[in-house]
Amino acid sequence: MLTRTPADITCRLRGQRVEQQDLGQQRMQRVKVKKQNERSVPVQTGRQYRLSEGEVMSFSIAIDGPAGAGKSTVARCAAQKLGFVYVDTGAMYRTIALYMLEHKVDVENQNALEKALSQIEIGVRYQDGMQQMLLNGVDVSGRIRTQEVSDQASVTAAKPAVREKLLNLQRELARHENVIMDGRDIGTRILPDAPLKIFLTASSRERARRRYAELQQKGEVCSLEEIQREIEERDDRDSHRAEAPLRQADDAILLDTSDLSVEEAVDRIVNLAETAMRDAKRKEGARRGIHSPEARIQELKNLMLREDSPLKGQLWVSDDGKAAVYLAASAGFCFGVHRAVDTVYDQIKEGQTPICTYGPIIHNEMVVADLKQHGVMEIDDEVQLSGITEGTVVIRSHGVPQRVYEQIKGQGLKLIDATCPYVKKIHQIVKEKSAEGFQIVIIGNAHHPEVEGIMGWCSSPAIVIGTEEEAQKLVESGIQKPLCVVSQTTFNLKKFHKLVEIITQLRYHESAILNTICNATEERQTEADAIAHIADAMIVIGGRNSSNTQKLVDICRKECESTFFVQTFDDLNLRLVPSRGIVGISAGASTPNNIIEEVSKQCRKTILLNRC
Ligand SMILES: Nc1ncnc2c1ncn2[C@@H]1O[C@H](COP(=O)(O)OP(=O)(O)OP(=O)(O)O)[C@@H](O)[C@H]1O
Ligand SMILES: Nc1ccn([C@@H]2O[C@H](COP(=O)(O)O)[C@@H](O)[C@H]2O)c(=O)n1
Ligand code: SF4
Predict the structure, then answer these.
(1) d(C-alpha 31, C-alpha 20), whole Å
(2) Which terminus of the chain, N or C, has fewer Cβ atoms within 10 Å?
(3) Are residues 22 and 154 in the same domain?
(4) What is the domain range of residue 107?
């Protein structure tokens, strides 16, 4: 990716005029924001989103949400990672509030308010990625962070004249910069066309806890209850004012950070941004007609060079540069599958006998057939299990209900647990949360063994939803208990966000929303999505009953019509695969390497070498 030079940006508000110059080679833009009768102040934009060599477009990310949700912390880090400028609009409202407090302006008096506003000049300066606020030329960045200013800011911000004053400055910044802008009305009012909008939230208790910890660290005496009350009052004022109230934009993605670390929240946003940028780029590319295979292969090479690109696989290009095969780095066994398969082979090596697996150890027929040849039997259900009188039972990577553990032990059998640790973590969560009285909601497929296993760790019946209609039904059921939402580890990430958005219409403050889609799945889906975006054909390899492979197929099909789902090379009709352009290969988490290697080798041979 392009790196952004340390930002040193100054913008001023009031009688501003904006000019733009292209500074050629550096691909930098210089924007002068002039106040009448005053020297011009430069705004330099560093990295702009590159479409392809020689072309740039700017990209905005809007983050809104209640106080203390983590907007500034997360937005600042994400901006740093993406090379964007972080714009904290709350600081602008705080600066105006500070003036009103210090000059004892009665903001309820319209004349006094307008007079004061005409005497205020707001300056925004960026140094080393930090936003500094200037009030009539004086740096007030430190003074705007008091509780008194926070409260006054939400009162002042409700005034239309105040919002009007800041609107142009905020829009102007986004016009010339790649920005992540946070506030309350960014997605709904300031940047309604932003290609990525996020509504960041957390329970008011959690937000109060964070503020409390922050203040304690600074050595300030405070009470958690008091902070929570202040936060809730501020949220109430922000959400119920007539002018640009805080609300989630219809097209914003909801991100609840209650149970996320800062790093996790940042990663989510960076991933969402990468996907949204690719979308924007593709649309723009199509508009400008970047169609030739050579141009797209070059484009793919450029993407792969970017440090933070999900495209970390291998690329082979034909001599004439018109055809390429890309093999995803994330294709094949994930950590959990490796671990489960190795566990069974270790038992075989140790000479344990007889060995059974509870369900197929992974969803891959070839692997299961090989284990069968080594004498490993498969038990399909609890009835079959009750017939086993001796030996070892290995629990599959997908996990099983708690009662199955008890049954194995009760029958005096040796239990080897190959449940993936990521799935185990979900078992612990639902066990604890259901005991605390939460209604467990599992986003996934009710008939998938992993979901059946998770259900078997809840102390009261869980609800499973997998479609928007089911999510809507849940909302309409008017359920009273607080919700704890988890996901099947291999669920489609975008679909998960969509369903969470629907469910949280219910009561997002009390709910615990836990995205338990595992990293391996997320990486695989992100890479498949990225390559399918630019590819002319996609080949996805995996077992027919493998849920994660099926998700990859769905993701690829959305991006690339010519997506082929194969279990082995024998299923692939290479005559259907185009001989020009990019062929992408991805594979599910349970697909053995030798199968992937075979498909990749044959594709290269046919597409790259046999070209006339
Ligand atoms: N995901 C997270 N997990 C844990 N702590 C977090 C997380 N995000 C932010 N925090 C902490 O919560 C505190 C509040 O975050 P921050 O100031 O970024 O919130 P904000 O949404 O910008 O609030 P405000 O709108 O009031 O300015 C900070 O101390 C931050 O480190
Ligand atoms: N776009 C925005 C941003 C902020 N506000 C108001 O300012 C207050 C302080 O904001 P912080 O993000 O620094 O906490 C906030 O409570 C809002 O009232 C706004 O209205 N619109
Ligand atoms: S896909 Fe994720 S959760 Fe499933 S086995 Fe692999 S690592 Fe574990």
Answers:
(1) 5
(2) C
(3) yes
(4) 1-46+87-177
